[in-house]
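Our platform keeps sequence and structure together, in a single record for each protein. Because each token names a local backbone shape, the row as a whole describes the fold. One such record is reproduced below, unchanged from the form in which we store it:
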Amino acid sequence: MSKFNMKVTPEIEKLTQICRENDKLDLSLYGKYDVKRGLRDLNGKGVLAGLTQISNVQATKIVDGKEVPCAGKLSYRGYDIKDLTKGFINDRRFGFEEVTYLLLFGKLPNQEELNEFSGILANQRQLPRNFVRDVIMKAPSRDIMNALSRSVLTLYSYDKDPDNIELENVLRQCINLISVFPLLSVYAYQAYNHYEKGKSLYIHQPKKELSTAENILRLLRPDKKYTALEAEILDIALILHMEHGGGNNSTFTTHVVSSSGTDTYSAIAAALGSLKGPKHGGANIKVVKMFNDMRKHVYDYSDEEEVSVYLKKLLHKEAFDKRGLIYGMGHAIYSVSDPRAEVFKGYVEQLAREKGRMKDYQLYATVERLAPKVIAEERKIYKGVSANVDFYSGFVYSMLDLPLELYTPMFAIARIVGWSAHRMEELINVDKIIRPAYKNVLPEAEYIPLGER
């Protein structure tokens, strides 16, 4: 496959240096003009930029008139995520379709409503004729998120009414995208795996009677086989990633782009571009790679001193990618605990037992316990540090034999539900474009004619 403009020439390097010199800001100006970098203060509290009823993230509570950290809480349409997951797990049923209904329509469905909605999703779980051949196969991408974005934008051309933003039409488009995201993601990986890595090509058809989680495993695996526990835990993973308030990067992107009146495909492609970033959706890949490096340098997983030494090396930029971070620890909002990580942890242990990976699980548990202590000793921190959902999700995906290339697309398969709900909310409630304000801090310059420069 031919490469496109891959070489960085000396001319490009020279121009890049000019960018570095002229784009640097005096960081003290952020304090002078009270501008929040990343729209968060030192305590991780966000600047209010919108309202939503779709989900809520809580990390503090009021005690004696003061705001203090508390165990993290995540609610979807007012329902605690722990109660939701416990409900369908106790009933031994899959919850993705039910929670999708909740996020889109604001209420839990009864059995009849759930059956009808699940049927709609199942019937929409198909791509246009020859789409796989003409779009996915002809230009396989090394990054599945890019392939996913391209497929979403191309689906615009197959839609007979793509620019209509009447609510009924937008809901139709969103439901269709929720249904086909697993196909777009897995088929894009299969194309990459075949054309780029020289492996066998498998294109399986989904089954209408299976859940979203079951179909993902069926589409991905050559023999189409999976265990009940594997499908149940993937279902939980999807639900925990479906939504996380209106202020996360990709969801805020959805609000901003939707406020301009653009089409659904453009709005979702923009959200995908945001999610692809390693500071957002790609974090669990970093966790897995960090642990792979840790296994090469920590010989006794039960030796807490040896594990602590490695963690300190991470913070001192002496290990792994030398960025000074312990990936999977800490969150922009949560401090005491991330409720998604807490839900995950019990099921991670079950899967580790089934897969014979209890030794790896013990290493994860040890790092989760030691990392906050090490960080507190080595760094000045402004709030507590705990394991976030990325800490365990990458481990789960590795035990499910999902390739690294699909980790972030799995996030997208889940988060398309939240994006869709927020797009509907934006179109229903807001009639003005979201326009963040910026202050120019560069003084006026006097023009110098070309011949005098």
About this structure: The mean pLDDT is 90. The beta strands are 55-63, 66-76, 79-80. The CA atoms of residues 17 and 256 lie 32 Å apart.
